[in-house]
């Protein structure tokens, strides 16, 4: 005979369960809200919020509290205009006065797209079956003239065309793959890290794939 015990936590519902901003252009603000509902919580309340992120703002507002014990809060979350470009992943901890449900986590995700953008997002170079080089191109754009200062990732048969050092709003980055003795075979994936002189912009990671036959 097996005995077990359990404790059912108070009914707390988040709608939606997390916040996903998707893609936001750097410099533009964005905001989303979720509601937090609890039943039978006449004396229940949030006391504070905790978040280590400097890219977001958050405000918690009590919107309902009735004699039957139903309580509702609204959490308003925004992305700051000066948030750095790149992935956004943070967790806001809502701390309540209930010892059994002291902390409620709210996940915040998104992607802050900088002024730089590249296409394609993934360069498929096909199949390399001979010593003839396979070619591919990335197009890198910005609203302001810029220069590419360095590209890392060449080697193992992959190469990058020399940089011209010019400042312009669009650059074409040419990459190539050539079967050589000792280079890896099979399905290959290569990441090229492209650094520019655009202030505050992190390097771009551009991915190329190719199948190299034995």
SSE map:
Blueprint: E1 12-15, E2 19-25, E3 30-38, E4 46-50, E5 56-65, E6 71-79, E7 86-96, E8 103-113, E9 117-119, E10 122-128, E11 134-146, E12 148-152, E13 158-160, E14 168-177, E15 186-196, E16 204-212
Parallel strand pairs: 2-8, 10-16
Antiparallel strand pairs: 1-3, 3-6, 4-7, 5-6, 7-8, 9-11, 11-14, 12-15, 13-14, 15-16
Helix content: under 10%
Q: Compute the CA-based radius of gyration.
A: 25 Å
The overall pLDDT, averaged over residues, is 89
- Compressed to H and E, one letter per element, the order equals EEEEEEEEEEEEEEEE
Low-confidence stretches: 5-9
Count of DSSP strands: 16
Which strand-content bin applies to the residues?
over 45%
Which assembly state applies to the chains in this document? single chain
* N-C termini distance: 61 Å
Q: Please identify the structural class as seen in this structure.
A: mainly beta
Q: Which sequence of strands runs across the widest sheet? A: 1-3-6-5
Shape: elongated
Biggest beta-sheet profile: 4 strands, antiparallel
Give the count of helical stretches.
0
Quick synopsis:
The chain is mainly beta.
Give your account of this protein's structure.
The chain has 214 residues and is an all-beta fold. The chain is built from no helices and 16 strands. It has strands spanning 12-15, 19-25, 30-38, 46-50, 56-65, 71-79, 86-96, 103-113, 117-119, 122-128, 134-146, 148-152, 158-160, 168-177, 186-196, 204-212. It has a four-stranded antiparallel beta sheet, with no helix packed on it. The chain has a four-stranded mixed beta sheet with strand order 2-8-7-4, with no helix packed on it. Strands 9-11-14-13 form a four-stranded antiparallel beta sheet, with no helix packed on it. The chain is elongated and about 80 Å long.
């Amino acid at each position: 005979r097996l005995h077990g015990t359990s404790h059912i936590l108070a009914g707390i519902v988040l709608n939606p369960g997390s916040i996903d901003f998707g893609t936001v252009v750097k410099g533009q603000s964005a905001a989303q809200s979720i509601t937090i509902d609890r039943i039978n919580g006449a004396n229940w309340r949030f006391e504070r919020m905790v978040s280590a992120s400097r890219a977001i703002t958050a405000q918690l507002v009590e919107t309902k509290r009735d004699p039957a014990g139903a309580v509702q809060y609204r959490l308003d979350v925004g992305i700051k205009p000066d948030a750095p470009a790149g992935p956004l992943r943070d967790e806001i901890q809502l701390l309540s006065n209930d010892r059994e449900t002291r902390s409620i986590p709210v996940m915040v995700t998104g992607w802050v797209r900088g002024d730089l953008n590249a296409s394609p997002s993934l360069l498929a170079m096909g199949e390399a079956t001979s010593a003839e080089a396979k070619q591919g191109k990335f197009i890198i754009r910005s609203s302001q003239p810029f220069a590419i200062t360095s590209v890392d990732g060449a080697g193992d048969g992959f190469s990058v065309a020399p940089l011209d050092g010019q400042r312009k709003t669009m650059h074409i980055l040419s990459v190539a793959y050539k079967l050589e003795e000792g280079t890896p075979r099979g399905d290959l994936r290569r990441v090229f890290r492209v650094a520019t002189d655009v202030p505050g912009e992190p390097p771009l990671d551009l991915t190329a794939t190719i199948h190299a036959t034995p």
